[in-house]
Amino acid sequence: MTPDDAARLLAACSAFDNRQPSEIAKRAWASSLKKIPLDEDCFDAIARYYATPAKDGARLWIQPADVVVHRTTIRKERLENFVYEPPAGLDDPDYLKRLRGQQYAVGAGHAPAPATAPALTGGPVKAVARALAGIGREVPAEDDEIAAVRRPGPLGTECPKCSAPIGRPCRLSSGKERAPHAARRGETTDPAAEAAEFERRRTAARDRLNRLTPAEREQLDAFHAELRETRTP
Asked: Which of 61, 113, 141, 145 is the most buried (most CB within 10 A)?
């Protein structure tokens, strides 16, 4: 903005606040608004400033910063419903340049701004579509809900051995997780074979205890003593 442009702007301000523009004032305004061209938005900014009630009830003279703020607001309002218009075809090598050019044209008022916001296209995302599909449907019974969460594999059923619920792993008597029991995997078990396997493991454990060295037995006794202390309420 040149000093002569600033003089025209100050003349418009004087119509509202009766100021007396001077040579110094127009040069000061031109220096403050050197990056702002004199256009219709500058005059509209002055009119908007004086048409807006003062917050504290005291109206001050408009300053260059007020012109910049209101002019920027006016141009942003034109871009509220802006829609980029791509060229024909699939490629747009000058996208950024074209986008900025269209935004400047609409913001400056050289091109008409869309009066309404563009309508959304396409369907909802998958999660929303699934949620919408359940509206109005009957709430399933408890048995249906259990069937819905079942899945292939041992964890899809309740364990008959340790009563682990659906979806949860089997556990030992100590509470530690273990591989699914044979019954949960659908395998038949032989009680006699299980008893024989249990006896085999107990015999192996007894033999291992008998082969402990004095130092190893001392460490084992200390471990058992510490374990009993932690379990004592």
From this structure: 113
